[in-house]
Design brief:
single chain, 383 residues, alpha+beta, Gyrase A, domain 2, RNA Polymerase Alpha Subunit, Chain A, domain 2, 3 domains, 4-stranded antiparallel β-sheet, 15 helices, 31% helix, 19% strand, globular, binds zinc ion, transcription, DNA-directed RNA polymerase II subunit RPB3, DNA binding, DNA-dir_RNA_pol_RpoA/D/Rpb3, protein dimerization activity
Length: 383
């Protein structure tokens, strides 16, 4: 395996299976950290709508109010195009929710039958958000284009009126029992509450033969019999029994399985995940770039780096200002003496060409502007 060649390759995606609520794909030519970032972003950073406030008018069921409110919160709601179709309430001009940043759902059901009645997500009805007083004002200077970006089922419980989808059970009621509830759904991400996660499961596997020894298998007698290979092993070459361990090998192919709860389609989850990752890194690049414009004092007594880095020892050990300004403060010395910051910076930033997203991101020029300046005096950082 020619690692140099591997590094030069563009990232690849091969979709193996795509269904309504799941996608299975192989991500190639990226490193483990990138694959894991994508997994985490898809789980925790993609906005959806979910019921966030519940007003219970009548509850004569056997379940307490809190119990029902929690179950309602977990009901997946159709959130397609959530980025554009609804605002975060915190970004909205209203005081506590309006038609641009919230959806209203009602549940109004009672049992008059001798049989037990299942109250499910199919009984939740979306109603137009009532016009509040504080909404009158902003509406004039605020066209509220969000509304036009909503699909017909936006905010509706997933699978409502779909004979192929089983609804979510909320409570069971008997004759004479009643539920009358008003719910307000808002936009959020899973970092705030797990109910906002569009994914029920995201996983990836790599190195099915465990050539890299990232896993230690426990076994009794026969490791091969007790640990059958996964399906993904077919994608890779089996190691020879006498193959020596390659210390320099790195995982290169990741077998992803993304399963959604239906609030977003699997394509949307993956695409939004990548876009979100891009945004995060872009704001990091921007932050570093603007940091370079700060008025950082000229290194005079060799203590400048202490102020900037708070590490101190990177500069403290043998940093001789005139020499540093010319040549000796290299990435290698910074990385070795200050692993916390210097190491990360040198690994992450000095390899723009190897980075999977180096090409289309504009990361490299920004990084150069802020970090890789040829003149260390310009900003106090030279990688
Ligand atoms: Zn609002």
């Amino acid at each position: 395996m020619n690692t140099q060649l591997q590094d030069d390759l563009e990232p690849t995606v091969r979709i193996r299976k795509l269904e309504r609520d799941r996608v299975n794909f192989v991500l190639g030519n990226v490193d483990l950290a990138f694959a894991n970032s994508l997994r985490r972003v898809m789980m925790a950073d993609i906005p959806t709508v979910a019921i966030d406030m519940v007003e219970i008018e009548i509850n004569t069921t056997v379940l307490p109010d809190e119990f029902i409110a929690h179950r309602l919160g977990m009901v997946p709601l159709n959130s397609s195009n959530c980025d554009e179709a609804i605002r975060y309430t915190r970004d909205c001009t209203c005081l506590a929710g309006c038609s641009f940043c919230a959806m209203m759902l009602v549940l109004n059901i009672s049992c008059h039958d001798d049989n037990t009645l299942d109250v499910t997500s199919d009984h939740l009805e979306v109603i137009p958000y009532p016009v509040t007083e504080d909404e009158h004002m902003p509406i004039h200077d605020d066209p509220g284009e969000e509304m036009s970006k909503r699909g017909p089922y936006f905010g509706h419980p997933v699978g409502k009126d779909d004979p192929d989808a089983r609804p979510v059970l909320i409570a069971k009621i008997r004759k004479g029992q009643e539920l009358k509830i008003r719910c307000i759904a808002k936009k959020g991400i899973a970092k705030e509450h797990a109910k906002f996660s569009p994914c029920s499961a995201v996983s990836f596997e790599y190195d099915p033969y465990n050539k890299l020894r990232h896993t230690t298998y426990w076994y009794e007698t026969d490791i091969k019999a007790e640990w059958p290979l996964s399906e993904n092993a077919r994608e890779e070459e089996a190691p020879r029994d006498d193959e020596p361990f390659d210390f320099n090998a790195k995982p290169n192919k990741f077998y992803f399985e993304v399963e959604t709860d239906g609030s977003l389609g699997p394509q949307e989850v993956v695409m939004k995940g990548l876009a979100e990752l891009q945004n995060k890194l872009a704001s990091l690049v921007l932050g570093l770039k603007s940091g370079a414009d700060l008025d950082i004092p000229e290194p005079v007594h060799g203590h400048m780096a202490e102020q900037v880095w708070d590490g101190g020892n990177a500069a403290g050990m043998g940093w001789n200002p005139p020499a540093v300004a010319s040549t000796s403060w290299t990435a290698a010395t910074v990385a070795s003496s200050s692993p916390g910051r210097g190491g990360a910076a040198s690994n992450g930033w000095s390899q723009n060409n190897d980075s999977p997203m180096g090409g289309g991101w504009g990361a490299a020029p920004a990084a150069n502007a802020g970090w890789g300046s040829p003149n260390p005096r310009a900003n106090g950082w030279n990688m």
